[in-house]
């Protein structure tokens, strides 16, 4: 979940889609600035940062100023808690309930696509940057945060390992529905999650989510070997 402060920092570098917010950078951005000669600290507000972004950057391609500064209700709520592990229980329940209502399941009840395509999506970290085409195909960059296969030697650990995801959990209707919902809108099950809301924000198409679902749940997928 990106706070306005974190998004200001991201905008100042690459406006990259999947840049993970850094708690230390958030704390520094929120801390009052001290004068060089001990003057009274100057408090930087969200309005100040908004004005700075609007005056310093311009929209290009899929990376728009509006996309950086305009927060929905969940982003605004989570912006109050830079450390997502300490979101108050009442706030977490409210966020999760609201986001769960927005999950869109396949109308044809077909949840699984092609795991081979899902692997390509998991490996692809491009999308929604200023150098990309508007309406272009985005990747999910899954390996930036998760281990998925035994063969993959380079992966992140911000998120849990997904190796043998389907083998360990099975493919019951409840598991399938949960997995779809988690990919579609991570905040539906973990308030203020760092994981992008791939479906809710239109990062991945419905077919792409089907393919990633197959990567996680198909017994033939390398994830489950």
Characterization of this structure:
α7 (115-123) packs across α10 (206-217) and α9 (173-184) crosses α10 (206-217). The protein is 40% helix and 0% strand. The protein has 225 residues and is mainly α. The chain is globular. The protein has 10 helices and no strands. The chain has a domain at 72-224: Cytochrome Bc1 Complex, Chain D, domain 2 (Orthogonal Bundle), CATH 1.10.760.10.
Chain-averaged pLDDT: 85
CATH topology of the domain at 72-224: Cytochrome Bc1 Complex, Chain D, domain 2
Which structural class fits the helix and strand makeup?
mainly alpha
Q: Kindly, what is the distance between the CA atoms of the first and last residues, rounded to a whole number of angstroms?
A: 32 Å
The secondary-structure element order is HHHHHHHHHH
Count of runs of 4 or more consecutive helical residues? 10
Work out the strand percent.
Answer: under 5%
Helix residue percentage: 40-55%
Total count of strands: 0
Question: What is the general shape?
Answer: globular
CATH class (first level) name of the domain at 72-224: Mainly Alpha
How does the major sheet shape up? none
- At the fourth CATH level, what is the homologous superfamily of the domain at 72-224? Cytochrome c-like domain
Instruction: Give the second-level CATH assignment, the architecture of the domain at 72-224.
Output: Orthogonal Bundle
Unreliable sequence segments:
1-29
Rg estimate, integer Å: 19 Å
GO molecular function, one term: electron transfer activity
Domain Cytochrome c: 113-220
Organism: Cupriavidus pauculus
Protein name: Sulfur oxidation c-type cytochrome SoxX
């Amino acid at each position: 979940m990106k706070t306005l402060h974190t998004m200001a920092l991201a905008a100042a570098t690459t406006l990259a889609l999947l840049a993970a917010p850094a708690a230390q950078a958030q704390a520094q951005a929120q801390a009052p600035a001290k004068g060089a000669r001990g003057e009274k600290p100057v408090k930087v507000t969200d309005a100040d940062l908004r004005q700075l972004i609007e005056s310093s950057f311009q929209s290009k391609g899929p990376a728009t100023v509006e996309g950086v500064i305009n927060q929905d209700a969940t982003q605004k709520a989570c912006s109050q808690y830079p450390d997502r592990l300490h979101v108050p229980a009442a706030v977490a329940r409210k966020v999760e309930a609201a986001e769960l209502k927005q999950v869109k399941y396949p109308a044809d009840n077909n949840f699984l696509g092609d795991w081979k395509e899902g692997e390509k999506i998991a490996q692809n970290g491009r999308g929604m940057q200023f150098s990309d085409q508007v309406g272009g195909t985005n990747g999910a960059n899954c390996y930036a945060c998760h281990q998925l296969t035994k063969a993959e030697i380079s992966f992140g650990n911000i998120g849990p390992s997904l190796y043998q995801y389907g083998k360990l959990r099975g493919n019951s209707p409840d598991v399938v529905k949960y997995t779809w919902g988690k990919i579609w809108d991570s905040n539906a099950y973990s308030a203020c999650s760092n994981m992008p809301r791939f479906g809710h924000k239109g990062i991945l198409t419905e077919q792409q989510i089907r393919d990633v679902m197959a990567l996680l749940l198909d017994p033939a997928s390398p994830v489950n070997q």
